[in-house]
Amino acid sequence: MRFYLLSDNVDTLVGMRLVGIEGDVLHTKDELLKALDFVMQDESIAICLLTTKVVLIAPDVISELKLRNVSPLFVEIPDRHGNSNIGDAIDAYVSKAIGVKL
């Protein structure tokens, strides 16, 4: 079982590689969909880390994967600028999952 990173910038990928996490840098929805297909086909990947900007490329697709997929686990991490609010993303995810606005 291993981690895999889908990032919007090389800096995050290089930092993760220092701790042994492989990944891809993507900028378009087509690249993201191909990478997600790869991640879901590879049974050795247990956790897929996604930077906030990657999630914003196709938020509906990522949200659906978080809700429906058992494996791998998709986890959003802040990008290198740290200017996103992960708390809002978590609130939206939980609200969609339970069907009640928090």
From TrEMBL:
The keyword Cytoplasm does not apply. It holds the Pfam family ATP-synt_F. The keyword Ion transport applies. GO terms for molecular function: proton-transporting ATPase activity, rotational mechanism. InterPro entries: ATPase_V1-cplx_f_g_su, ATPase_V1_fsu_sf. Keywords: Ion transport, Transport. Belongs to the V-ATPase F subunit family. This is V-type ATP synthase subunit F. It comes from Acholeplasma oculi.
